[in-house]
Amino acid sequence: RSPHSDAEAQGGSLAVASWDQDELKIALSEIAENCGDSSQDEQSFIECFKQNAASFPPALALWWFQLLWTSVSHWFHCVHLRDSVSIRQVDLELDDGTTNRSVKAQIFREDPLVLAISGLATPRECQQLIDSQDLK
Description:
6 helices, disordered N terminus, 3-stranded antiparallel beta sheet, alpha+beta
């Protein structure tokens, strides 16, 4: 017996939708937003997600979410958490002995110091660092 046999037996119609991977990932993420506050406890998040994913086949919704987002933690950090806001910006002068250059740094915390510097390394230098540290 198909899950839609009751609707078919009563002369009802069956609606079919086609979604690509990105559309499904976004839709599942929107459902997960309702459970974002409980995402630190994975079991609570899963229960909340299942309750809110009623528009999807129950056996597939969570499986699709985990397949597309890898983990609740990955979704939480990529989607639910808001971007960090810098507390101030500073201009830094860099001198390597041969050239001077100016870069801007965003300060996120002062003690201990946490900052982001845009343009500190060239794309080539970044790739060399990734390769030398096996950071793939």
